[in-house]
Amino acid sequence: MENNKQELNKARKKEQKQREKRERKLEKRRYKQALREEHRYGTDEKIRWDRLDNTAHLFPVIAGEDMSNVYRIFVILNEEVDKRMLQ
C-alpha cells in the first residue's frame, strides 16, 4: 500500500515537471515571437526584426572599447523633415 502511494506521488511529480516544462517552452516561444513582431509607433503596421549574423555578434567583442566606430544608415523618408524641430 505504501509503495503504491510513493509510486503515485512520483508519477504526479513527474507529470507536474513535464507540464511546467511545456509551459516554459510555450512562454519562451511567445516571448521570441513578441520580440520579432512589434508595431511601428502610432500605427498598426508591424515591424519584423531579423536575427543578427555572426559578424554582428563578434564585432563588438573583437573591436574593444578603444575603437571608435562610425555607423551609417540609409533611409528614405516618407514625409518632409521639419528643420525647426532639428535645432
Detailed description of the structure:
- The chain has a two-stranded antiparallel ribbon.
- It has one domain.
- It contains three helices and two strands.
- The longest helix has 35 residues, at 2-36.
- It is elongated.
- The N and C termini lie far apart (82 Å).
- It has helices at 2-36, 54-63, 83-86; strands spanning 37-39, 46-48.
- The chain is mainly alpha-helical and 87 residues long.
Topology:
Layout: H1 2-36, E1 37-39, E2 46-48, H2 54-63, H3 83-86
Antiparallel strand pairs: 1-2
Strand order of the largest sheet: 1-2
Distance between the termini: 82 Å
Q: What's the shape? A: elongated
Low-pLDDT runs: none
**What is the count of DSSP helices, taking H or I runs of 4+ residues?**
3
Rg result: 25 Å
Average pLDDT for all residues: 79
- SS content category: mainly alpha
The helix fraction, in percent, is 55-70%
Number of domains: 1
- The sequence of SSEs as H and E is HEEHH
Q: Major beta sheet, specifics? A: 2 strands, antiparallel
